[in-house]
Task: structure prediction
Amino acid sequence: MTVKERLPKTKEGLPKEAFAIVGDPDEPDTWKLPHHTKAIFRALKGKLDIEKTVDWDRMPAAAAALSPGGYRGQRVDASPEAILKAAKHLAGHYRKANKPLPDILAALA
Result:
């Protein structure tokens, strides 16, 4: 096994677990809505609570991308089921942080 085969696949330097939508775990081009920092690698090794890796600067954009109006006018290209699953996932982070839900997450999750 080569070094490249042992390294986890990444997109934007992040593993699939950092994205709210993962179409195909082996195809980073299908991963959408990044919302964790690179500290997620430590969390995946059990060295940090994953909630401490949420990138709160990116969360509003990820939530907005799920809405019909989208983020900057662009809605995430995903199935209705994937959008609902992502909304529930993102809402979970907001709830665990005791932060108010954006309207779109409150409506979907």
Summary: The longest strand covers residues 19-22. Strands lie at 19-22, 31-34.
